[in-house]
């Protein structure tokens, strides 16, 4: 693995990433909090208003999603926040009960949010709000039942505000998604076939997939004009992709894209890492159609997304396990250092989970940990400044609304800066309206908690999680071999069963994470790559008779004693060698 220059590591901390316009979302988030704080304050109960803020975090989810997905996501997160605050509030009387509950909550929510592809900010606010509930009940004496009840009020307001945004134009997200797809396809169509057009092809494919998903998860009745525009964009995309199959273009690296005919055949021969001849562009085009048809079949199916996302031993399981270990170790370490009487226990739990809960390559999660640590340190400084001013009443409301507004502006552009604002926001909410007159001890405690949480999470990530992606790739390789056998036999899958196309897509995704970690030449990755190429050849071939004759061989390989990925194995393990030999044989016979 190559070393990363220090400047490259630090640059994301101070730069803003490209992002779609965030101002409408920021206004929506600020308005939600303002409504939940202003009305109780006018009635003389700012304390109740602060309790509703834990429910308003639901407005941060699916901000640009089409109407049906937005309604379901925000409602689901709202119910999650109510459940989380109820768990935190009703375990406030017992340090041990809350610790166990928080660990389980962090694990389950991390796994589910990842499996369901909820998107940022993921499970973080669910864990944080459970901790805030534990603190306000245990430290400020709030009635336990009042906390989830007021969270429900905040969640309801968040749902109403985010859905009200679509009242003037309920189809706006669909229309924007289709417009983006048209632009991406037009840019791809204007490019000449060849390696330089690969990024445009990938952008067009992703934009079309997003548009089709937006249309399916949008209004209940389809729009003829939007459907026609999307169909025209798809035809233009297919025509351009077909044009690319007439060209065989050289590649500068062995990274072949099965969704990209412009990648063509790698002219220098098959790459050493895959052991399989790469399919031609024509075969790639046929395979792409099979994958696209499979993706369309499952758009909008929550049951499919959950069953596919929770495949064992996929990333949601490894992330949930690492979150559980990190939070448990952080609790034990904090207890040893500071004793069991810790009303701020939730902070160390939240920041252990924050580093790990979104998954991805270890390097990316390490960057995120650096963002979160530096952002929290800055945020504690901001809280110290705010606390010295002792805001109360409408001044406190103004500070909280401004923080929520700015968080939503920054969250996709620089998460470190967003965390710098989330920190004082969480501490102000947890204060119950009584900002401490001497905030320095509180800031010191939270700083210790943050360092413990982040350091423990990084230790788990680079220790326990070192082979997580190896195990996931092995699991997906076994699934792909079983699906290859069923595909060869002509088995017809039921609605929720995986298909060969979906399994190959999952295998390619998990193997990409392994490659991103620097293990592209590992036995797990080489075998996965070979199975992927052979699978795409079988999807793209017209020779069904040869495919059918290979069914028994694939079934035999599916039952082979393939190593689990828990431990390193030799490069030429017998099971790996047999699988790669079969894939090479298929590569020589099919195209």
List unreliable stretches of 5+ residues: 248-256, 263-274
Mean pLDDT: 83
Number of strands: 0
Sheet-strand content, in percent, reads: under 5%
Radius of gyration: 26 Å
Structural class given helices, strands, pairing? mainly alpha
Sheet with the most strands? none
How do the helices and strands follow one another from N- to C-terminus? HHHHHHHHHHHHHHHHHHHHHHHH
- The first-to-last residue Cα distance is 35 Å
**What is the helix content?**
over 70%
Number of domains: 3
Q: What general form does the structure show?
A: globular
Enumerate how many helices there are, as a single number. 24
Structure report:
There is one protein chain. With 591 residues, the chain is an all-alpha fold. The protein has 3 domains: 19-168 and 311-462, no CATH class; 172-262, no CATH class; 466-589, no CATH class. Helices cover 70% and strands 0% of the residues. The chain has helices at residues 6-14, 23-42, 46-56, 67-90, 95-115, 124-140, 146-164, 172-189, 198-216, 224-244, 281-298, 302-309, 315-338, 345-356, 362-389, 393-410, 415-430, 439-462, 468-489, 500-516, 523-540, 544-549, 551-558, 574-589. The model is unreliable at 248-256 and 263-274 (pLDDT under 50).
């Amino acid at each position: 693995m190559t070393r990363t220059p220090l400047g490259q590591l630090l640059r994301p901390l101070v730069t803003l990433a490209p992002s779609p316009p965030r101002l409408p979302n920021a206004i929506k988030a600020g308005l939600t909090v303002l409504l939940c704080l202003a009305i109780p304050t006018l009635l003389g109960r700012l304390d109740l208003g602060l309790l509703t803020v834990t429910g308003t975090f639901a407005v941060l989810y699916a901000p640009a999603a089409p109407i049906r997905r937005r309604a379901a996501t925000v409602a689901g997160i709202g119910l999650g926040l109510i459940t989380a605050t109820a768990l935190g509030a009703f375990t406030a009387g017992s340090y041990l009960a809350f610790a166990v509950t928080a660990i389980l909550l962090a694990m389950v929510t991390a796994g589910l949010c990842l499996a369901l592809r909820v998107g940022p900010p993921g499970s973080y606010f669910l864990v944080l709000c459970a901790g805030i509930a534990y603190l306000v009940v245990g430290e400020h004496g709030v009635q336990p039942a009042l906390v989830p009840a007021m969270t429900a009020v905040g969640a309801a307001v968040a749902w109403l505000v985010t859905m009200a945004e679509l009242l003037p134009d309920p189809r706006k997200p669909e229309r924007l998604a289709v417009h983006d797809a048209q632009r991406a396809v037009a840019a791809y169509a204007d490019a000449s076939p060849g390696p330089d057009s690969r990024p445009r092809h990938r952008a067009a494919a992703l934009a079309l997939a997003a548009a089709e998903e937006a249309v399916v998860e949008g209004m209940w009745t389809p729009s003829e004009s939007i459907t026609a525009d999307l169909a025209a964009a798809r035809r233009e995309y297919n025509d351009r992709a077909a044009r690319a199959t007439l060209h065989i273009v050289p590649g500068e690296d062995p990274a072949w894209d099965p969704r990209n005919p412009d990648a063509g055949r790698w002219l220098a021969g098959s790459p050493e890492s895959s052991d399989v001849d790469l399919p031609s562009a024509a075969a790639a085009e046929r395979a792409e159609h099979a994958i696209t048809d499979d993706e369309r079949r499952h758009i909008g199916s929550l049951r499919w997304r959950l069953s596919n996302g929770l495949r064992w031993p996929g990333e949601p399981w490894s992330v949930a396990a690492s979150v559980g270990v990190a939070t448990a170790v952080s609790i034990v370490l904090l207890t040893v250092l500071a004793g069991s009487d810790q009303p701020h226990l939730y902070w160390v739990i939240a920041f252990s989970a924050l580093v790990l809960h979104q998954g991805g390559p270890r390097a990316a999660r390490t960057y995120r940990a650096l963002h979160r640590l530096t952002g929290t340190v800055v945020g504690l400084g901001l809280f110290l400044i705010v606390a010295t001013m002792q805001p109360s009443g409408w001044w406190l409301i103004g500070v909280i609304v401004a923080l929520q507004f700015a968080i939503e502006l920054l969250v996709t552009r620089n998460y470190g800066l967003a965390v710098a604002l989330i920190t004082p926001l969480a501490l102000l909410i947890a204060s119950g309206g009584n900002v401490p007159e001497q905030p320095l001890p509180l800031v010191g405690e939270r700083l210790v908690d943050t360092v413990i949480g982040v350091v423990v999470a990084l230790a788990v990530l680079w220790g326990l999680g070192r082979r997580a992606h190896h195990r996931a790739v092995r699991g997906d390789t076994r699934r792909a071999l079983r699906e290859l056998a069923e595909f060869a036999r002509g088995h017809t899958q039921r609605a929720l069963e995986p298909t060969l196309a979906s399994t190959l897509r999952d295998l390619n995704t998990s193997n990409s994470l392994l490659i991103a970690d620097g293990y592209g030449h590992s036995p797990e990755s080489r075998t996965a790559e070979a199975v992927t190429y052979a699978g795409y050849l079988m999807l793209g071939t017209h020779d069904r008779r040869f495919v059918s004759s290979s069914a028994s061989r694939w079934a035999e390989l599916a039952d082979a004693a393939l190593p689990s990925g828990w431990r390193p194995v030799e490069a030429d393990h017998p099971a790996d060698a047999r699988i790669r030999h079969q894939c090479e044989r298929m590569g020589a016979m099919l195209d």
